[in-house]
User: What shape does this take?
Amino acid sequence: MQPPRLLLLLFLPLLLPGMWADPEGLWKIQVLAQVLLLGEASPQTSTKPFPSPSSFPAEPQVLQLLQTSFITNFSSAEMSGVALLGDVPIFALDPANWSIHFHWPWARQATAEGDAEKIKSHSKLFLRNMVRYVHEMAQQVQCNYPLVVQIRAGCVLHPNRTSWGFMDVGEGGRDLIAFEMERQRWEPRQPSPLAELVSKSLTSKKAITAVLEHLLSISCQSYILTLCRYGRADLERQEPPVATVFARMPKPDQLLLVCRVTGFYPRPISVAWLQDGQEVLPGPALNTSAILPNADLTYQLRSILAVAPHDGHSYACRVRHRSLGTRSLLIPWENHSIAPTVGIAIAVLLLVATASAGGVWWWKRRKGEEATWEIQEFII
Ligand SMILES: *[C@@H]1O[C@H](CO)[C@@H](O)[C@H](O)[C@H]1NC(C)=O
Ligand SMILES: *[C@@H]1O[C@H](CO)[C@@H](O)[C@H](O)[C@H]1NC(C)=O
Ligand SMILES: *[C@@H]1O[C@H](CO)[C@@H](O)[C@H](O)[C@H]1NC(C)=O
Ligand SMILES: *[C@@H]1O[C@H](CO)[C@@H](O)[C@H](O)[C@H]1NC(C)=O
Assistant: This one.
């Protein structure tokens, strides 16, 4: 098996244009290209199945490198970058000194399995060359500074052992150019002189497109498999969802039942409301939020069902997630209970009305009851 040349994947595309410009750089790229392609008959196409170890991931895996350069003028450029496998961060580029920081010990180990150390030592040179290339291109079409260049590169590895590589470049928050693997060329993604110039300039460098294709297919697949092997425990981690049900009453004739689900990983989840045991179908009464990230690499969402107060139906929130296996989490809404907002509103009204010690006592008692009302969670 070809060892992963993962850091090449990040940096080679960035270093190439600049290196091309000077004789010493040209020599270096030839050496790097030789290192990369030696022993390979030819760069292989994206659809060629990878000769695989037995533990092939059962789900599509996406590896992507996201890199942003904020170039204010000829003497100043700020860099940031991160590599992600799915939603798991693998490494990041330190903006202060452009060095690479791994998020996990296994990511460092997996990365060390190829030519990584060799390439890593060149990473700052690569980034400098990229900035130089951007200046060169910007001068030719007389762009205004600052320039914000964003790069997204990587591949998707499917369970059927095929992969698809991609590399997109944006400028000023808009798509600029994209690499087309099949045709081995760069295409403009906007009708501007800069997009025309850069895509022509990069496409004309045949050695670069060949190396790039190799990186985005063979090297990228290989890196994914190595990461999956070293990082299995963290990549396959499962956190069960915690769900709570409560209610709000924005209007006297409307009750909003809220099912809040949080702390789960991985991201796919199914949350549904049951009315008398029947799933409530999507419609104007049902409003489910997007799945949002928590700070600890778990996720949350909420699903809100609008109902009429005291409509005589029973309601429950049902949650299904990989961590629960074939079971479901079922949290019933107790129709006879009173919502906390309503309870507090009544309490406040009473307080204002009587301003008596008895009122305060009632309110405290009321609060106590509400606390016991809150959640009933069980597994079916
Ligand atoms: C370049 O930009 C940086 C950051 O904005 C600034 O501190 C520096 O003075 C600028 N240099 C020149 C030569 O304009
Ligand atoms: C880069 O800076 C970080 C702190 O921002 C520091 O921990 C790290 O050691 C530095 N790396 C190098 C190679 O100087
Ligand atoms: C492999 O799976 C992907 C995604 O499901 C599909 O697009 C592709 O055509 C498949 N390739 C082969 C050779 O089956
Ligand atoms: C769903 O909730 C969001 C946020 O509370 C709100 O902006 C949106 O209008 C709601 N959509 C519907 C169909 O009620």
About this structure: The chain is about 35% helix and 30% strand. The longest helix spans residues 206-230. The pocket of 2-acetamido-2-deoxy-beta-D-glucopyranose (ligand 4) is lined by residues 287 (CB under 6 Å). Residues 49 and 160 are 8 Å apart (CA to CA).
